[in-house]
């Protein structure tokens, strides 16, 4: 059964102890199974405090972040690769110590808009780093989720098929594709088919909508998305991600282009997302049973 989560940026812009306590408490209050903890500054995460808050709230955690230009393992720059590998390992250690099951995000390149295409050598170097990091992830039973994002946030993985190819090159059962409907809506020709084709390589999934606001108020065929997840027999976490200028500030506001306020009430947004996700999953599961139920006597 899929565990349902919500991204911490729905509640707060960072992960100070105050942010941590508030975001975890609100996530539990709404009824989610887990929170996706996220920070651009790994040094801000207080492991013991976070563990205590998660235990008190009775929920699980995943972890997400992105590499930057100075830690870009796809850059074919040996010094950047070393810094990137160290940052990935640090994130893995933090995730392990707070009890997180997944480390996801833009782990294969920098979280930025590139001005040139990726190179074969850059991809090769990224694969080699992630093979080593994947070994550590496996030892700690943590899934690394390589997020497939749009062309304005990376030049390495923009489609699900690229993520599958990269996972095959890495060759680790603990390195999977992290799919996100917002990005798929921009880059995929057929979102549902891409999900089905990715199949067992899906390790993490982000729901949302085309404008990153309320689920169901944008243009994505979310009913089709959930039916595809059921067809793919995806059993991993499904986490709701949404951003508004009411919560996020710089630098994330600038990196993601969050220029307007898509919602005012985080609690209302998250409550709706959980209800919507549960309903869509149930509908998709029931749709999958129709052929069997429709057999002639």
From TrEMBL:
It is an enzyme of class 5 (isomerase). Signal peptide: none annotated. InterPro entries: IolE/XylAMocC-like, Xyl_isomerase-like_sf, Xyl_isomerase-like_TIM-brl. Keywords: Isomerase. One of its GO terms (molecular function) is isomerase activity. It comes from the Bacteria. Its EC number is 5.1.3.30, 5.1.3.31. Residues 25-251 form the Xylose isomerase-like TIM barrel domain. This is D-psicose/D-tagatose/L-ribulose 3-epimerase.
């Amino acid at each position: 059964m899929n565990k349902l989560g919500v991204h911490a940026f729905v509640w707060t812009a960072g992960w100070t102890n105050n942010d941590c306590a508030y975001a975890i408490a609100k996530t539990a209050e709404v009824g989610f199974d887990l929170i996706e903890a996220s920070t651009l500054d790994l040094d801000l995460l207080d492991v013991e405090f976070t563990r205590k808050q998660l235990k008190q709230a009775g929920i699980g955690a995943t972890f997400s972040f992105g590499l930057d230009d100075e830690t870009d393992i796809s850059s074919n720059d040996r010094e950047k690769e070393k810094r990137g590998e160290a940052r990935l390992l640090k994130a893995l250690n933090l995730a392990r110590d707070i009890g997180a099951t997944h480390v996801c995000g833009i782990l294969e390149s920098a979280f930025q808009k590139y001005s040139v295409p990726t190179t074969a050598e850059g991809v090769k170097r990224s694969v080699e780093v992630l093979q080593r990091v994947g070994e550590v992830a496996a030892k700690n039973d943590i899934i690394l989720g390589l997020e497939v994002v749009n062309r304005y946030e990376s030049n390495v993985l923009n489609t699900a098929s690229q993520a599958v190819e990269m996972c095959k090159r890495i060759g680790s059962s603990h390195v999977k594709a992290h799919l996100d409907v917002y990005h798929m809506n921009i880059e995929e020709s057929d979102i549902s088919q891409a999900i089905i084709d990715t199949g067992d390589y899906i390790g993490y999934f982000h729901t949302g909508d085309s404008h990153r606001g309320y689920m169901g108020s944008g243009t994505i065929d979310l009913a089709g998305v959930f039916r595809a997840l059921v067809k793919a027999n995806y059993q991993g976490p499904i986490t709701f991600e949404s951003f508004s200028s009411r919560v996020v500030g710089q630098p994330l506001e600038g990196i993601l282009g969050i220029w307007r306020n898509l919602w005012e009430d985080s609690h209302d947004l998250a409550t709706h997302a959980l209800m919507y996700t549960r309903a869509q999953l149930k509908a998709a599961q029931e749709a999958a049973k129709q052929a069997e139920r429709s057999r002639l006597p």
